[in-house]
Amino acid sequence: MELDHLVINTLRGMEDAARIFTALGFALTPRGYHSLGSVNHLAVVPGAYLELVGLPETGKQRQEVLDSPLGLSGLVFKTDDPDALYARLTAQGLAVAEPIAFSRPVELADETRHARFRTVRLAPTVFPAGRVYFCQHFTPELVWRPEDMTHPNGFRAMSRLVADSPDPEAEAALYARVLGIEVERADAGWLLELGAFALELRQGPRHRFACAVLDFDDCTTLAARATVTQGVNWAGTAAGGTLSIAALDLGLVCRAAR
Prior knowledge:
With 258 residues, the chain is of the alpha+beta class. The protein contains five helices and 16 strands. Strand 15 and strand 16 form a beta hairpin.
């Protein structure tokens, strides 16, 4: 099992969110319009991406985005067989929605194509911190394009998501069951490792995705940009620090990977 992407819900604040992330040096893809009734921008890195998702000003409104909390609200894993996954999860007695298909247009230099996906989503009662689901990509070449993976701030990977839980041991065991992997005891709680990415469950008063850890070539450019970007608070050095965006109720731990 591998990470596909992390989701930051902007609700109706996409314009401001995109402005902030662009000012911070993330190379965002052009705005996408999902057939389900949501809009997005991606910050793409090899094998995964950070997604800003929100709602269009008019037209169809995606209910699961409306129902999700502001900020870090989605943890998405890869799958190449949604039907088999759905069958396995339902056989385990878990509440899971049937696979759904959707798309969004992608404007290329000489044509418009459609990025197509199929997802399997666990019910919010399974993991109350946010949306946990699995995504199959039929057109990965329209998502992972080389020209979208060079970021002025040196962004290169997402290495960890930290989730708070009133019962982190039980929730970590449930994640392990869903993902089919082992869980380990860690200093701050419980850890599930999926290649270069890890999910950490720690004790907290409520269920929430508390913060994500992002890796950069170094944090010099990010730090410089953060100190002059309105709506952003940076606490750290060129070696790393914490990025806080109050309007999105968002905390990101940023570190130099070199």
